[in-house]
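Hey, can you fold this one?
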Amino acid sequence: MAYKMAMFGCALPEGFLLTRISGGRFSHIRYRYEGIRFLFAPAALGLDGYSRMRDRTKTQFVNLADKFRTKMLEFSDPNSSNMIFTEDLKNMVHLADATSDDLNLVHKMMTRFNQQNKEVRFGSYVFGPVVMRMYYFLNKPDEALQAFRDPELEDFFAQLVTYQILMDLLFQNERYQDMLDVFEIIKQRQHQEGKFPKNVVILTFAACFKLNTPESFKYGMAVWKELKEVGHIPMRRAVTFAAGLALNQNASHVAFEMISGVQHQNYVTIRNLKVAALADLGRPEDALPILRTILDTDVPSQRKQTFSEEVIQKLGVSVGKTTNKELIHEFQQIEKRLREGQHITAQDLNELLCMPIAETVRNPVQDRNQRFLAASFSRQNVGRTKPYPRPGLSDLY
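Sure. Predicted structure:
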């Protein structure tokens, strides 16, 4: 059941929907209009933990929040002799509402806190990801960009997960060119895990795909070339966005080469893109074996492996352009079997490529390091008895 309601105690912007699952939690957030979605699901960005901390903080500050705001406004004055402590800023970040007064106060407190800690860092708490979650939660992309671009706060937001949250916030607000501008800033900033953070690269190609212009294609191909030159291997989702963009820009040969380099070819996005590229290249006979593979491996007890109706129709047009009656007959027979076996879905390629990324899978050591370095509020895995889920397992179907 979907609810247009307050998200964890905070009013949602117009057009948002939440989907409730068992236990009172929310599986994902999505836009109601035009099928717009987050690329990374809220849980993957740590928003579920952030919302829990908001609830806890608001409970602690019942009848005290306004006095606290007044005090923090005084303390954040550059001429004040008082200090902004870690706990002060943490509390304000979790109390802030989507008002200009609150957002301006948070910015002033961040600036003051960052200035007083330039020489000596008193604590190990990393604020960048948490503040960016606040902007994301309140759906404030302009304020998030302003803070990110503020020279006084450059080191404040220099964490990989911060970049990811900001770019996903821009993605869900259709600010695709702003995403590319942010990517250029990220490339110039030095950080310990390399010049091209994997999730940031995914979001960059997602922005190029959404823009779908000759200029974005040219930019995407330049980024792709740069990645290859430094030995970076793009993740599958980055490859599929780049290949999808190439298809849309009538460069099917480029798309085919890109997806041919993916190690596992049985993901739903990969096989759909491959069939679409072969259809555009006028090689439908090479696409039929891919369709037959699904029929040959159909197991009733497992989820159906599928093709998009859009892709099947594209292939049908390509087959129809041939004079090979045997090929036409073979395609018709395969298509009939696919439909009878419910292997064709109404999802188009855009929907398939933009399916939300549910979570980032890490081992326990990586989880602990990520929580320390990025002050992550992601779901904890301490005491977990079940094995970690295989990444992308649902994408096989």
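The first strand starts at residue 2 and ends at 3. Let me know if you want another pass with a different chain boundary.
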